[in-house]
Every structure is written in structure tokens, then in C-alpha cells.
């Protein structure tokens, strides 16, 4: 169901024909934006499907090698996907600075969390690996929440005096014939007469207007929606991690046992743990666990 729902979005031309949005102005044949968005979608969709296996307890516990291999595939797909995002960044949602910075912040948070999860996996610090992998995909999941927030914010700012600057070339690509452009956007008349190709104008944010007004509305709210979605998910995952201390402790004990068996010098604290990097007292394994390891 997931694949059947999302694969149509890879067909950029069909999507653009059905939805006259500002993004499609940049998705011309052979453009970096078009290449970037296709790479992003083709890579991130299978990564999202495969990551479900990573969070399935039965797979993690019974098929360790599959879990490890699948993790490397997901990280590779995610990195390639973020490379596609970087190609689209200059013109993302019209190329406004707030949109660029918000997308870049989300990209950095996602890749950094993935990198820290991988680092802790290498050193068998399983509870930290779990925490950072959960953070990574909670951050990525903010894109879904963002879509809801965008619609809410758009309805709030519509016809409230908010405006967005749009180049006349983009306005023309959205609303169609030049005669319609001159009628609704008289400031673009020099562009439609062929006198000034770089002409731009300020467009009212309004969901009740034409396509250019709707585009201006989403341009106004997009950056704020990304930030709000990211904050909600970042806070949400920290709350979840604080509510599952027993699972964290269980995994740390497993980390201790595996690191000890691997001959690591500081079993139980080889990864990015608070007692290694911060001022918390060193973690000590339960006495029963120590006795069990010595008996082996």
C-alpha cells in the first residue's frame, strides 16, 4: 500500500500537470531541480519501507545479520536521498531563505543522527544506537507533520495581508496565457510584453485566489511549518526516550556483555554515553551480570 501510494509522485510531469504549483517551474527536463527531486523520491521511499524492519523487534532479535545489512542499505539510500535534496535546495518552495535554512536544518539533523547511530553501532553501544536511530527517523517523520501544519498555517494567513514576491516568469507558468497574467497581475505587464524577463511583483497570499495567490500562501508558511514540525518531533522523541528507561538499561547491559566479549577496554561505555562525555558518574553493570560474565 505504501509503495502504491507514493510511487506516482516520482512521475514529476503527471504531478505537475495535475497540480500547478510553483515547484514545477523549476522541474524542467534536464534541470538540477528535476534530477534532485527524482533522486530524493526514488531513494527515500524504499528507505522508509526498509526502516520498518529495523524497528520490528522480531527481526532485530532473530535476524541480527539481516538487521545489520538492512541498516547499511538504509543509511546509503538516505544519504543519496539527501544528496538529491541538496540539488533542489536553491529553489526549494520558491528559493526563499527561510525555506532553504529550514530544509537544511532538517537535513543536517537527520544525517547527523544517522551518523551517530552508526558510530554507536560500530562500538556495540546498542542503547545509544537505538536512541540516535529513533531520533533520526523521528526528525525525518516531521515532513509528514509539516504537511498538516502547512495547511493549517495557510488557512490562518490566507487573505490576512501576507504577501510573497514572485518572479513574473513563475506567475506566467502558473496562471497560463499572457492575457490572463496582464489582467490579474498588471505589474508584470513589462514581462508579458517581452520588455523585462527579470520582472517580479508582490503577490497576496490567498487560498481563494488564483494559482499564483495560492503559491504565495504556501511560500509564506513553508519555512515556519518545517521548523514547527521539526521541533514537535524533536521534543516528542526525547519524551519517548525518557519514558523508556528500562529498555535503555536493558540494552546497555547487553552492550556491556558484547563489548566485554569483544575485548573492548571500557565495556558498557564505549559509545557516546553521558558518563564518558559528560559529568555523570560512570555506569556500573549490575552485580549479577558481572558474576554471570565471570562464570563464562
Keywords:
DUF2306_membrane; transmembrane; two-stranded antiparallel sheet; disordered N terminus; membrane; 2 strands; 296 residues; mainly alpha; DUF2306 domain-containing protein; transmembrane helix
Q: Please report the number of helical segments.
A: 14
The shape is: elongated
First CA to last CA: what distance? 48 Å
Find the count of extended strands (DSSP E, 2+ residues).
Answer: 2
Helix content range: 55-70%
Residue ranges: pLDDT <50 for 5 or more in a row? Answer: 1-5
State the order of secondary-structure elements, H for helix, E for strand. HHHHHHHEHHHEHHHH
Mean pLDDT value: 85
Major pleated sheet: 2 strands, antiparallel
**Lateral strand order in the biggest sheet:** 1-2
Radius of gyration, in Å, reads 25 Å
Proportion in β-strands: under 5%
In terms of structural class, how would the helical and strand content be classed? mainly alpha
Could you explain the architecture of this structure?
- The structure is a single chain.
- The protein has 296 residues and is mainly α.
- The protein is built from 14 helices and 2 strands, in the order αααααααβαααβαααα.
- A two-stranded antiparallel ribbon has the order 1-2.
- Helix 5 packs antiparallel against helix 6 (97-122) and helix 7 packs antiparallel against helix 12.
- The longest helix has 32 residues, at 126-157.
- It is elongated and about 80 Å long.
- The protein starts with a helix and ends with a helix.
- Residues 1-5 have low confidence and may be disordered.
Amino acid at each position: 500500500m505504501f509503495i502504491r501510494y507514493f510511487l506516482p509522485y516520482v512521475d514529476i510531469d503527471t504531478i505537475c500537470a495535475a497540480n500547478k504549483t510553483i515547484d514545477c517551474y523549476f522541474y524542467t527536463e534536464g534541470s538540477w531541480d528535476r534530477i534532485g527531486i527524482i533522486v530524493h523520491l526514488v531513494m527515500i521511499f524504499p528507505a522508509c519501507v526498509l526502516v520498518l524492519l529495523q524497528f520490528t523487534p522480531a527481526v532485530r532479535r532473530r535476524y541480527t545479520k539481516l538487521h545489520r545489512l538492512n541498516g547499511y542499505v538504509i543509511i546509503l539510500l538516505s544519504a543519496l536521498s539527501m544528496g538529491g535534496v541538496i540539488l533542489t535546495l536553491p529553489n526549494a518552495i520558491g528559493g526563499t531563505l527561510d525555506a532553504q535554512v529550514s530544509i537544511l536544518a532538517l537535513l543536517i539533523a537527520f544525517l547527523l543522527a544517522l551518523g551517530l547511530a552508526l558510530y554507536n553501532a560500530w562500538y556495540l553501544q546498542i542503547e545509544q544506537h537505538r536512541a540516535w536511530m529513533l531520533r533520526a527517523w523521528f526528525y525525518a517523520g516531521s515532513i509528514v507533520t509539516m504537511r498538516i501544519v502547512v495547511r493549517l498555517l495557510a488557512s490562518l494567513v490566507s487573505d490576512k495581508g501576507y504577501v510573497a514576491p514572485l518572479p513574473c516568469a513563475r506567475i506566467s507558468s502558473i496562471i497560463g496565457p499572457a492575457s490572463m497574467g496582464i489582467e490579474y497581475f498588471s505589474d508584470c505587464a513589462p514581462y508579458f510584453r517581452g520588455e523585462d524577463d527579470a520582472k517580479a511583483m508582490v503577490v497576496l497570499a490567498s487560498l481563494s485566489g488564483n494559482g499564483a495567490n495560492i503559491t504565495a500562501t504556501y511560500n509564506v508558511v513553508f519555512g515556519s511549518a518545517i521548523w514547527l514540525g521539526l521541533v514537535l518531533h524533536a521534543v516528542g522523541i526525547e519524551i519517548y526516550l525518557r519514558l523508556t528507561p528500562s529498555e535503555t538499561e536493558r540494552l546497555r547491559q547487553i552492550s556491556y556483555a558484547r563489548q566485554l566479549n569483544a575485548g573492548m577496554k571500557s565495556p558498557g561505555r564505549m559509545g557516546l554515553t553521558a558518563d564518558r562525555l559528560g559529568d555523570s558518574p560512570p555506569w556500573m553493570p549490575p552485580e549479577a551480570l558481572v558474576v554471570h560474565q565471570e562464570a563464562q
